[in-house]
């Protein structure tokens, strides 16, 4: 048995078409992993920054995992959404990052992408919003069926995570 | 005599789970006989002559030992000053219930055995002084006109001493935000409102026989007890340090020595032992509980085998000529490396339209891959070190007519160091001479391709001594960024003690030889994946993407 | 601590630092208060859990920064890193009509690795979606506020909040931990804190 602590923040995002965005996040880990404490998913506040293009969420993350194996190291997946002035939400991007396996402080930049529709869809999208979304969100953090997608590059989400490892060295693991 | 003064009169912070009422402080003040003592003595005589009316006063003052006083004070224990005795003796001066209570207490004292204090007295939390002092005392010189609004507000709230629940209260979701905060709410929330009780230990440092003057009152010590168990004392207990120095202002400059000692009853040895045992038990039980949740077993590779897990991500590609990029990649395992069956060692990303960032067009893939492989050294030849797996990739672009163009080739050797690695790989693509080829690339799509992607490094079939790419023309194209999180596991690491030793063990124990890679299997898998992708292109991505209005897409096949 | 040092069951986290500066280009005469939010396994053993700064104005010549230089000093003990303490800072100051209003809330985890760290935290205030409410709150000097500033250190229940970020507060920390290694916790060495993933930021524009 070995323990993993992930402590940090989803700082914010930038580079999206509108800067008033929020984020839904979740953690996915393999079968050998067990979450002892902390919440495995959440949603940030909606920030409308006063100046600058970066939206800040400062959303805290504090997770305590225990594991029997190394497979399925946790991954953090994100969906960035925009809420317009009518309260409607529009998908702005999907992204994920591997939780760093080395102990210490990590500042991560998670790039995001968004499925792209045909030009007709893009046209309607620019008037009424909406747009294509993934049918199953596990495609965000798996590579299996990605090649069937046509996407467009979106903004970036910044994270600050500190990883604490415990007893991995007892089992001969160098992370 | 005057040496060893303590000049640091800063505040000290203590934490106690014990009730603050058990706090006891021993205060000692002593006058330092100065050179001016004689003149003072004379002056004092003169003064006492003038002061004939105050016979009662002098009888009340403790006789003898006026230069020195020592008292043990309890928390919020009220000791009256001469001034207060004089004031509250007359019932007419009493206005508040507290005043009347003091009047009764003083009357009882006078009837009884008299006061036990002389110069030392206290102002408790309920006294007017305590609230007045915080207002009036200026922190800067010369004193400013008045307290800031913040100070006023703090004083108002702090003395309310409301019983507030200190446990972390869970704010219901719907009431997370107070949309129209009232004045009262703002007053309370903009400042610290932890209830606090204050006590001042004062000294009347007036000349002998002339006690009871407001001007000669000095704060000896201020103690604050917060609801959360914090006790602050300013100045701190002297403990082993020298006494504090007090100088009276005004015409009679006198020097006093102040000593503060914590006289609270210490915890008994037995009790302490019990408490420690209790904590130890608690911690051990807590730890056992956590351990039981975590379990004990952990997977382990067999002896002599190094397990390498790479969690990787193809982050982005930038600086390529055409838009709508996608990346093919595959992993080559050198000899003596094994992977689990059914482990996909290759993949294809989605097609991504780029965006402009700075000077370059960037495509974001955020494509995850992870693989697990095992290394086993067959024989111990000291000459060579193990070769590490290599990741080959090819960047392609897809245009509106579903034609693809080769944009770049690159490779990356998986780092042999464990940990996180962010790597940016430069790529190139083969070109044919002449404008015709470029025009063909532009109009028709398709472009020279490598027969075998491993040509990007040392071709897998290469047997010669020196690699030559003579006669082969390439053009520099963009770069691909990847992050890799490498985890290594081996039994050998467990036994090793220091990190340095561990490193050596890796090489010593696992150090084998480098041979040709078993690239063919991988290539085959890669071709399979490519076929699968092409098949998928033909059947449209309709089932994967839910759209508002599904419109059939042009389905020209690749040129 | 209470335990024999050979077999500790708690570790200590010693925090020394300061709330150094704030950058609020549009506001002046600000003060801040801080408090800590931590999990159930944590307890402060010494130092102050909360504090309120002086009112600071911007320098005449200097940039947008205003300096508080307000000290932080606290020691925690815990059995488990879960619930690692966060510092919550809230900033207040007068609006154009002299009403004392909130200018920002922000929170950050106390750095987990020993050494000296600087953290710049973004500050934000809750914002109403209705334009009318925005106007009245501006006129009345009654901006929306969090019921308890500590909610900004919680991950739950944030989805209903709409905020508006403005300004930054810079904090400095000197961190010392004791017995974390002995308990088997690997927080990475000081070098790895500025390692490859910490250093490279290819997309900073």
From TrEMBL, chain A:
Keywords: Cell projection, Cilium biogenesis/degradation, Cytoplasm, Cytoskeleton. The keyword Oxidoreductase does not apply. One of its GO terms (biological process) is cilium assembly. PROSITE patterns: C2_B9. GO terms for cellular component: MKS complex. InterPro entries: C2_B9-type_dom (IPR010796). It is found in: Cytoplasm, Cytoskeleton, Cilium basal body. Component of the tectonic-like complex, a complex localized at the transition zone of primary cilia and acting as a barrier that prevents diffusion of transmembrane proteins between the cilia and plasma membranes. Belongs to the B9D family. This is B9 domain-containing protein 2.
Automatic annotation (TrEMBL), chain B:
Its main location: cytoplasm. InterPro entries: C2_B9-type_dom (IPR010796). One of its GO terms (biological process) is cilium assembly. Keywords: Cell projection, Cilium biogenesis/degradation, Cytoplasm, Cytoskeleton. This is Meckel syndrome type 1 protein. It is found in: Cytoplasm, Cytoskeleton, Cilium basal body. GO terms for cellular component: MKS complex.
From TrEMBL, chain C:
It comes from Denticeps clupeoides. Its main location: cytoplasm. Belongs to the B9D family. This is B9 domain-containing protein 1. It is found in: Cytoplasm, Cytoskeleton, Cilium basal body. Residues 186-205 are annotated as: Disordered. Keywords: Cell projection, Cilium biogenesis/degradation, Cytoplasm, Cytoskeleton. It comes from the Eukaryota.
């Amino acid at each position: 048995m070995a323990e993993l602590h992930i402590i940090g923040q989803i700082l914010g995002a930038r580079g999206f078409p509108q800067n008033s965005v929020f984020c839904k996040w979740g953690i996915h880990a393999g079968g050998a992993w067990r979450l002892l404490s902390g919440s495995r998913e959440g949603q940030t506040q909606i920030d409308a920054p006063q100046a600058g293009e970066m939206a800040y969420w400062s959303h805290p993350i504090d997770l305590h995992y225990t594991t029997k194996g190394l497979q399925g190291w946790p991954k953090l997946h994100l969906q960035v959404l925009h809420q317009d002035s009518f309260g409607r939400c529009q998908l702005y991007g999907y992204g994920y990052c591997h939780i760093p396996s080395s102990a210490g402080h990590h500042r991560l930049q998670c790039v995001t992408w968004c499925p792209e529709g045909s030009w007709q869809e893009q046209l309607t999208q620019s008037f009424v919003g909406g747009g294509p979304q993934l049918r199953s969100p596990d495609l965000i953090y798996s590579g299996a069926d990605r090649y069937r997608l046509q996407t467009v590059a979106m903004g970036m989400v910044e994270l600050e995570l500190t990883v604490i490892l415990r007893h991995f060295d007892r089992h001969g693991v160098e992370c | 005599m005057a040496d060893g003064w303590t000049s640091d009169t800063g505040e000290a912070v203590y934490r106690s789970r014990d009730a603050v009422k058990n706090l006891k402080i021993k205060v000692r003040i002593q006058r330092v006989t100065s050179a001016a003592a004689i003149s003072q003595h004379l002056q004092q005589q003169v003064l006492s002559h003038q002061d004939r009316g105050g016979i009662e006063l002098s009888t009340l003052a403790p006789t003898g030992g006026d230069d020195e006083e020592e008292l043990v004070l309890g928390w919020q224990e009220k000791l009256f000053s001469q001034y207060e005795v004089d004031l509250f003796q007359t019932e007419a001066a009493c206005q508040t219930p507290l005043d009347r209570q003091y009047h009764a207490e003083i009357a009882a004292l006078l009837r009884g055995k008299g006061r036990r204090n002389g110069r030392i007295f206290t102002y408790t939390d309920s006294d007017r002084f305590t609230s007045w002092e915080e207002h009036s005392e200026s922190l800067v010189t010369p004193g400013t006109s008045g307290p800031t609004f913040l100070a006023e507000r703090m004083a108002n709230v702090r003395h309310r001493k409301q019983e507030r629940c200190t446990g972390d209260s869970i704010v219901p979701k719907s009431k997370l935000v107070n949309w129209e905060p009232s004045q009262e709410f703002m007053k309370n929330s903009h400042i610290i409102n932890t209830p606090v009780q204050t006590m001042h230990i004062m000294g009347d440092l007036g000349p002998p026989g002339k006690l009871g003057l407001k001007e000669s009152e000095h704060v000896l010590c201020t103690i604050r007890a917060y609801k959360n168990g914090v006790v602050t004392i300013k100045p701190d207990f002297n403990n082993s340090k020298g006494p504090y120095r007090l100088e009276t202002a005004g015409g009679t400059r006198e020097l006093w020595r102040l000593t503060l000692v914590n006289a609270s009853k210490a915890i008994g040895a037995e009790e302490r032992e019990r408490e420690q045992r209790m904590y130890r038990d608690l911690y051990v039980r807590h730890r056992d509980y956590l351990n039981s949740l975590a379990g004990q077993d952990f997977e382990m590779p067999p002896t002599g085998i190094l397990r390498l897990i790479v969690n990787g991500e193809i982050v982005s590609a930038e600086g390529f000529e055409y838009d709508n990029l996608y990346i093919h990649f595959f992993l080559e395992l050198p000899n003596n490396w094994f992977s689990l069956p059914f482990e996909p060692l290759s993949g294809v990303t989605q097609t991504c339209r780029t965006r402009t960032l700075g000077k370059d067009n960037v495509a974001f893939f955020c494509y995850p891959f992870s693989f697990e492989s095992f290394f086993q050294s067959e024989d111990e030849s000291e000459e060579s070190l193990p070769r590490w797996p290599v990741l080959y990739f090819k960047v392609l672009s897809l245009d509106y007519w579903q034609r693809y163009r080769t944009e770049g080739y690159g490779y990356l050797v998986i780092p042999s160091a464990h940990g996180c690695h962010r790597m940016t790989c430069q790529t190139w693509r083969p070109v044919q001479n002449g404008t015709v080829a470029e025009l063909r690339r532009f109009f028709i799509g398709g472009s020279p391709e490598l027969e075998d992607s491993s040509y990007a490094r040392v071709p897998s079939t290469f047997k010669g001594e020196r690699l030559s790419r003579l006669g082969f023309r390439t053009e520099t194209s963009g770069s691909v960024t990847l992050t890799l999180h490498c985890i290594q596991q081996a039994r050998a690491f467990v036994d090793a003690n220091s990190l340095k030793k561990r490193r050596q063990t890796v090489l010593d124990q696992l150090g084998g030889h480098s041979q040709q890679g078993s690239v063919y299997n991988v290539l085959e898998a890669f071709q399979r994946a490519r076929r699968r992708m092409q098949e998928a292109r033909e059947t449209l991505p309709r089932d994967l993407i839910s759209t508002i209005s599904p419109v059939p897409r042009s389905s020209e096949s690749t040129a | 601590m209470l335990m024999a040092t050979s077999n500790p069951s708690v570790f200590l986290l010693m925090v020394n630092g300061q709330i150094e500066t704030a950058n609020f280009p549009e506001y002046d005469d600000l003060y801040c208060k801080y408090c800590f939010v931590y999990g159930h396994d944590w307890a402060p053993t010494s130092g102050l859990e909360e504090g309120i700064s002086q009112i600071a104005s911007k320098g005449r010549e200097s940039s947008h920064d205003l300096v508080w230089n307000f000290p932080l000093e606290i020691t925690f003990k815990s059995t488990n890193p879960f619930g690692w303490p966060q510092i919550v800072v809230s900033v207040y100051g007068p609006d154009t009509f002299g009403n004392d209003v909130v200018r920002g809330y922000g929170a950050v985890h106390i750095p987990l690795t020993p050494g000296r760290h600087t953290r710049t935290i973004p500050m934000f205030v809750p914002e109403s979606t209705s334009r009318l409410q925005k106007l009245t709150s501006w006129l009345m000097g009654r901006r929306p506020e969090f019921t308890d500033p500590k909610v900004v250190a919680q991950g739950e229940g944030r989805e209903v909040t709409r905020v508006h970020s403005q300004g930054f507060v810079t904090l400095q920390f000197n961190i010392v931990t004791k017995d974390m290694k002995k308990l088997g916790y690997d927080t990475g060495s000081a070098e790895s804190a500025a390692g490859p993933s910490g250093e490279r930021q290819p997309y900073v524009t």
